[in-house]
Amino acid sequence: MRLRNRYSIAILLTMSIVVIGACSKSNEESASNEKAQSKEESIAAPSNSSEKRLNEIDDTKVEVESSDANRELVSEITSNQNSDELVAEETQVENEEGNATADEAANNSQDEVVKENPDFDVDTYLKTNYKIDSTHYVTDTWENDVTGRTEYIVNILPDTEEYSEEITEAFKNGADDERIVTMINTAENLLDELPQINDEIHIESVNWVTFKEDFHITLIQDRDQNTIK
User: Fold this and answer.
1) Where is the composition biased (Basic and acidic residues) (predicted)?
2) Quick one: which of 195, 204, 208 has its CA closest to 132?
3) What pLDDT score was predicted for residue 118?
4) CA distance 125 to 140
5) Orientation angle between helical segments 161-173 and 178-197, nearest 10 degrees
6) Angle at which helices 122-129 and 178-197 cross, to 10°
7) Furthest C-alpha separation in the chain
8) Count of CB atoms situated within 10 Å of the CB of 194
9) Which of 131, 132, 207 is CA-nearest to residue 163?
10) Which of these, 149, 133, 150, 132, lies nearest to 141 by C-alpha position?
């Protein structure tokens, strides 16, 4: 009986030792696995960090290239705008010079006509260059002994009695009529320009005269010879 008890105790001790050994080995293996995993993560972490850094460098490079491309595009657009503005300015200058040349040629042509034709006909010139719709010109002249020039009184007459009544009524009512404005502007122009075209004449006055010639209005007058001083 005692021998059996001893065998039982020995078996229990043996089994306890085996269990303790197995647990110890299991703990060692777990610890070893944990160390291996930690090492792998440690190795993988720098790899992921390096990959992230490379991506950041690539993104920065793309941004720099994009910025350079934008600057080149803006520079090209600005250059084109400056070129267009320069062409526009040159075209404007050429047009202005062309207009000035045309005006000068017209003035020279008028001067040549006067010089080539000493018998300058004021009535014909008025009809050709200062035409006003539904009207015609009649002039009175006399010689000015002081200036030696031929004085002209230029009268604007209506072509019809009906038109005469319309304009005369507009004058009397003080109406802002476009036809009256046209006559006044024409009167001012011919008073200033005719003596420059032919220095042998002077426009003393320009008048509106009715169809029956029973009423007149002076549009402009130069009794003081201001246009030839």
Assistant:
1) 50-70
2) 208
3) 56
4) 15
5) 100
6) 130
7) 181
8) 22
9) 132
10) 150
Tokens of 142: 């006399």
Residue type, 207: N
Q: What is the residue type of 127?
A: K
pLDDT in single tens digits along all 229 residues of the chain: 555 555 566 566 666 665 555 555 555 555 555 555 555 554 444 445 556 665 665 565 555 455 666 676 656 666 667 667 776 777 776 767 666 666 665 555 555 544 445 567 999 999 999 999 999 999 999 999 998 999 999 999 999 999 999 999 999 887 688 999 999 999 999 999 998 889 899 999 999 999 999 999 999 998 766 655 5
Kindly write down the DSSP assignment for every residue of the chain, as one continuous string.
-HHHHHHHHHHHHHHHHHHHHHHHHHHHHHHHHHHHHHHHHHHHHHHHHHHHHHHHHHHHHHHHHHHHHHHHHHHHHHHHHHHHHHHHHHHHHHHHHHHHHHHHHHHHHHHHHHHH-SS--HHHHHHHHS--TTEEEEEEEEE-TTT-PEEEEEEEEESSHHHHHHHHHHHHHT---HHHHHHHHHHHHHHHHHHHH-TTEEEEEEEEE-TTSS-EEEEEE-TT-GGG-
Please say whether the beta carbons of 207 and 156 come within 8 A. Answer: yes
